[in-house]
Amino acid sequence: MEKQFAVIGNPIKHSLSPAMHNAGYETLGINAEYQRFRVEEHCLEEAVKGLRALGFAGWNVTLPHKEAIVSFMDTLTPEAEKAGAVNTVKNQNGRLIGHNTDGKGFVRSVENDLRGLKGKKAVLLGAGGASKGIAMALAQQGMNLHILNRNPEKAKTLVQIIHSVGGTATFGEFEPGDWLENLDLLVQTTSVGLNKEPFPFSLEGIDKEALVVDIIFNPLETSFLREAKKLGCRTQNGLEMLLYQGALAWEFWLGEQAPLDAMRQALKNQLFQGMFYKE
Ligand SMILES: NC(=O)c1ccc[n+]([C@@H]2O[C@H](COP(=O)([O-])OP(=O)(O)OC[C@H]3O[C@@H](n4cnc5c(N)ncnc54)[C@H](OP(=O)(O)O)[C@@H]3O)[C@@H](O)[C@H]2O)c1
């Protein structure tokens, strides 16, 4: 019987997940289909009941439902529990298991390049939802974090949360500083660049050995990443994080390794189809 998967969110029209997962099923000859559904906030509970009743084997959850859906789960994995948010649901004979692959997806996307994370230094720009997931996952891997946010109160709160789970983190002003001189990983998690606007400060003086990541994937290269590349750093855009959170959801649902190359290619094809791609 064909297995049904989906992603729910609002808006959802531009989600790249259906293309990524369906390409994976095709590559491995898996009899499954992945759809997308727009779900308004007040309809979330009904939508969850509907997906369960229709026998969907699993679904991804994106904004604005990641936190609200927690209360409709029968159980949570430790990852979802820690994040206080669910991005992946598995329907196990009618029992809904809430999981979160965002943080680990990010870790997977950088760990090969960095050859281990423990004891290394990461600077995070931004302290919103995405930053929280990434920060918690990196802290759990033993990285030392420094978090800068336009609104410093939010960076401070995030640092307190990290301390409460035994992690190491400090926070500072959203501006250039000594932190540029000695770091292993720099992650740009703010929404600056989504509309091709320039990043508000220069990375001049950055440690050239650092891996620099922007989690934005459209455009594929933000002005932030362009500057980091020009200054001699290795760079990575947000496509890899998207890919690995999807691959981990795949593994959670199907119990086998996801075909990464086919899924990555599908993401790129979808982006280059013009509708999404911002030159
Ligand atoms: N690659 C992936 O798989 C993936 C996954 C999730 C999200 N993302 C991307 O990550 C970005 C953030 O998402 P989110 O869910 O974390 O959003 P969010 O919770 O709304 O947080 C937005 C963050 O951006 C900062 N910000 C916004 N405008 C700014 C400006 N003009 N100057 C400085 N800082 C500014 C905010 O700072 P304040 O607190 O000071 O307002 C906050 O830290 C988006 O671009 C999203 O597309 C990518």
TrEMBL record:
Q: What does this protein do?
A: Involved in the biosynthesis of the chorismate, which leads to the biosynthesis of aromatic amino acids. Catalyzes the reversible NADPH linked reduction of 3-dehydroshikimate (DHSA) to yield shikimate (SA).
Q: Where does NADP(+) bind?
A: 126-130, 215, 238
Alphabetical keyword list:
Amino-acid biosynthesis, Aromatic amino acid biosynthesis, NADP, Oxidoreductase
Q: What is the name of this protein?
A: Shikimate dehydrogenase (NADP(+))
Kindly give the Pfam families that the UniProt entry links to this protein: SDH_C, Shikimate_DH, Shikimate_dh_N
What HAMAP family does the annotation carry? Shikimate_DH_AroE (MF_00222)
Domain Shikimate dehydrogenase substrate binding N-terminal residues, every copy:
7-89
Q: Which residues form the Quinate/shikimate 5-dehydrogenase/glutamyl-tRNA reductase domain?
A: 112-190
Give its E.C. classification number.
1.1.1.25
Give the matching Gene3D superfamilies.
Leucine Dehydrogenase, chain A, domain 1 (3.40.50.10860), NAD(P)-binding Rossmann-like Domain (3.40.50.720)
A GO BP term, please?
chorismate biosynthetic process
Give any GO molecular function from the UniProt entry.
shikimate 3-dehydrogenase (NADP+) activity
